[in-house]
Input
Amino acid sequence: MNGWLAVSTSRERKGKAARVWPATVCGLALLGSPLASAQVLMLGSGPGGAVRMFNTDMAVMEMQEARKDLPCTVNPSAKAQLGFDLKFHAGYDVSIPMRDLAGMENLLTILFRVTPENRKDEPVYFTQRVKVPSIEEDSRGEAFLQGIFDIGEGKYHIDWLMRDRSERVCSFYWDTEANLPPKDKQIALGIPPSGIRPSDTEQFREEPPVERNAEAPLMVKVLINFAPQNSRSATLLPLDTSALVSILRTIAREPRIHRFTIVAFNLQEQRVVYRQEEADRIDFPKLGDALNTLKLGTVDWKRLASKKADTEFLTDLILKEAGGENHPDALIFAGPKAMLEAPVPNESLREVGEPEFPVFYLNYNLNPQFTPWRDTIGHAVKFFKGQEFTISRPRDVWFAVSEVVSRIVKSRHGKQLRSASGN
Output
């Protein structure tokens, strides 16, 4: 697979905010490029496979000596980071002086091998080709590349090389590690120990089948606000989407939940983007297609006429979804902070009455110390005597959903006991 090289000068790099790795970043991320093609597994890579490589490339890897015929600087991640998709992401940054790429169009070929410490006979190979445009001889600054791959818990050794059409080689070697702290060992990760995968850019891929627990099946309704952390942002960043999708996937993987009603909405546009009624699985591909219709940053002038339009939308949504005859076993709100100018009126919430089911709020907030107060949805959930959970780290998703399901089961059991006793 091919990708175009994106370049930037040192001056352009100054003042940039610190980068946060979204879980969905895949393969070779090129600074300044709108799209980056994924690194791919080489044919025959994995247990029992036979990878076909040039002898010269294999010799470079086996030498284990860093080379800089093609000058470059590699900065690897010594420790993998857990993403909201509950996968560990490892990777590297590469910089190349522009003067060393000057001339006619070029092609950079990147190869690297990832070997688990406890399975040294099962290395996994990746490859990537990057097109380099014509560059002036007096160009200054550097070109920057970024690569990311996914791993399970364990220790790994990486052999990395890059060569151009002139067979100039840059090579580098390092070790990386992925592990959960002891208090988080019960988290079900997306990749088994010593597993190695190319990072997946498709956030809305179909969820694999789940073996459901036949005893006391649960039904939940999830109202999820697909919106960016920054309410003024005109785009839904991959990091934000990843966190929100991760909440849904964690709920979808819970074996005690058999039926799902999903209501995806956006407060900025004041509309329900996607709805799925009492299904036995969450249709992620259709949800992804629906979210592509979002046009953040463009607001209908009619909505601007009322400062309380967003509150009115949220109020109507709560009244519709929390009321009605078909009661779920739980109502779950999810999304980033929704700091609206006006709260949902208590008199409107009283129309719902006291819910016959528990209410929860999974509040996605990367910086809770900056906005520690309740938002508009949080106040409504408190009115219903619900429970709010803050999601600021990947581990929070797993523990919050586990606690939510535990409380749903207890609530349902309590209702059954009261019903049996005639109260």
